[in-house]
Amino acid sequence: MNVSPIGIISVQELSQKLRVPHCQLIDVREPEELELARLPGFQNFPTSQFATWYPTIAQTLDRHQETLVLCHHGIRSAQVCEVLVHLGFTNVKNIQGGIHAYALEIDPSVGKY
To answer: Which of 23, 47, 54, 107 has its CB 3.0 to 4.6 Å from that of 66, i.e. a possible disulfide?
Structure first.
């Protein structure tokens, strides 16, 4: 049985980590989505611009630092997590449920769409 090197983090765990951020935070949603809802501290690497950021992301970010990846529901972020692992990132976690779950379970002031 293969075990994926990608971890999963709940929005509750994310909420704790955002209090004292010590990890890399990536949001893979599109700029239009960021206008509707966003969390502080996240760098935006939109999936539609993959060809632009893919060649340099391993030089832009620390491949060994904990890296949390966010999207709307957790699908696109899971795909980007796979790409990051392929590029040699060693501590990648997908945020389960995405920003939608964060808005529902943690902070209702975060926009829902």
So the answer is: 23
